[in-house]
């Protein structure tokens, strides 16, 4: 296609550079060496190429600490007008799902950081996950942002097509205006994976005589060297160099500009109201696995003319798909409320010439809260996400750091013990939350009377940061083609309940360690995920949580009535609890049953016996690795010790038990294929009960957490 002399088009290139909070330094350094630094090396050689780049706030902080010279290079590119820096939520939250004041605070924090580091005042923003909800326009505008970028999928959902997507539009919420730019899907697919000449040809097809059109590319900067094989293609084989040279050679008609340069030169094309949306792939990932498979089938079979009308799921459904993500999210909302309430109480202390300590603590608490809002462990798509326990752990650690700082301000270092009955997870049923100076214990009467969160505050660590094994749409491919680690298909077992603690089992006589591990065992009771009655009381020793269920055990053709009562004492000081179990036969004849209590502990590593292992006083525990499956007979106690985390968990029970223990390991996708990830160690002390009519069995269980 030949161009008329006056045909032109604007091209805006944007990069989003991000690392999850809690990622290892060696991983970030690798991205720096293979992606961030070499990209700037090439850009500096081509001053005619203008670019917009977003760096997550915590990545900028890492760069300032480890490579301060890199920020000086960015500053020089800004000074010569070649580089626009983009703001966003400092710790990369899914903006729609955090409180509004946190939205505004995080954006302003990153804008301030960018300004201080480079001298540039950001006016545009990157939206994490491109997750858009209409209400966002107001807090985004209040944070001082003029424009945001999202996928053209969002605009297509509003009815735009073709050339209508080659500009930008304004939206508003309650009169607060933000300009919205569509990212071109074709460019995202082509750059940097197809020859640069094809990109030039695509631009040529859309150039016009008035030169008002814009094609916007904005995608992960890690695609340039950080993704598998891209360092070779982008840098060693010269893809990026050739692309920039071609843009320079065609700069008479390709107007390479930053997004803001285009915004200042060309008026918005109109007003628009975008529906709730994210990019197409995420809308698929948010669906349940069977529906995701159907959605993919629909995409493959529907006439291309109708593809743009297909809609998948909704980001917030990840909080349904993964209850553990919902637990983390609701913990974050709770801590956000605590930080705000503590700031309000501490505010009078900040007046005058009194100590600046409260202001320092509130500032640290707020930043820790925001760190705990980082999006990565709240969902799962192509890469690990929620499956990576060190990412979940980083968010929990940050939230607990914020909570401990609030404790210090509210209680001035004095011991306290607080009980709250509230609907923590917003499902319509109440939970019992006990908080002390040393720990949090959260109980869920509506789901097995289970302990679902156990926070050890001295180490900012949630011992029940676990994840159940669930089917994923891509598991079918593992069964068909295998994976980078042999035998992963043998790990594709699925849990029908959440991995919590104080879960009450009644086992079928054929149950074994292996069948319990692979979820092929028979559960004869109706206690695991069913509701318990809750009552509480406070004593001099601490808070007592009483959980009782009159349920049934299936024996042959009959369901026998049985009562399980567990009374948990949470002490006022120290970390741990005592649970006193009473099992009562409510039937009019004797009953034999096989009873077990499931406990879960996650210390993040199932292998590496030198750092995390089982132990018991006066008894050899073999195998001692947390990744081992084992059956220990006639045992009264066991410990889990983690030298790296600096904590140990000691468990004991008054009645001698047989003990089953095994790891929960999930199989998920990563950048380089499929991998197993340790999620928790399951410990199930179990007893054979013989109960007379109206007879009872009692056992006291203790769990203690200590700092090493």
Description:
- The chain has 708 residues and is an alpha+beta fold.
- The protein has 4 domains: 270 residues, 7-stranded beta/alpha barrel, CATH 3.20.110.20; 39 residues, no CATH class; 93 residues; 233 residues, Beta-galactosidase, Chain A, domain 5.
- 30% of the residues lie in helices and 29% in strands.
- The strands form 4 sheets. Strands 15, 16, 17, 18, 19, 20, 21, 22, 23, 24 and 25 form an 11-stranded antiparallel sheet that branches.
- The longest helix is centred in the middle third of the chain and has 24 residues.
- The chain is elongated.
- The N and C termini lie far apart (72 Å).
Task: List unreliable stretches of 5+ residues.
Answer: 349-355
Domain tally: 4
CATH architecture of the largest domain: Alpha-Beta Barrel
Output the radius of gyration.
28 Å
Oligomeric assembly: single chain
Spatial shape: elongated
- Put simply, the count of helices is 19
CATH class of the largest domain: Alpha Beta
Distance between the termini: 72 Å
The largest sheet, given as strand count, sense and whether it forms a barrel, is: 11 strands, antiparallel
How would you state the average pLDDT, rounded?
93
| Topology, number of strands | 25
Question: Might you state the CATH topology name of the largest domain?
Answer: 7-stranded beta/alpha barrel
Helix/sheet category: alpha+beta
Helix content: 25-40%
Strand fraction equals: 25-35%
Set down the secondary structure blueprint.
Blueprint (H helix, E strand, L loop, with lengths): L8 E9 L7 H20 L6 E5 L1 H10 L1 H12 L3 E4 L13 H19 L5 E3 L10 H6 L4 E5 H6 L11 E5 L2 E8 L1 H6 L5 H11 L7 E7 L9 H7 L2 H11 L4 E3 L2 H7 L14 H6 L3 H13 L16 H4 L1 H24 L10 H15 L17 H23 L5 E6 L8 E6 L2 E6 L5 E7 L4 E2 L12 H7 L21 E4 L6 H5 L15 E6 L3 E14 L2 E14 L3 E11 L5 E11 L10 E4 L14 E13 L4 E24 L2 E19 L4 E12 L1
Parallel strand pairs: 1-2, 1-8, 1-9, 2-3, 4-5, 5-7
Antiparallel strand pairs: 6-7, 10-11, 11-12, 12-13, 13-14, 15-20, 16-17, 17-18, 18-19, 19-25, 20-24, 21-22, 22-23, 23-24, 23-25
Helix pairs in contact: 2-3, 15-16, 15-17, 16-17
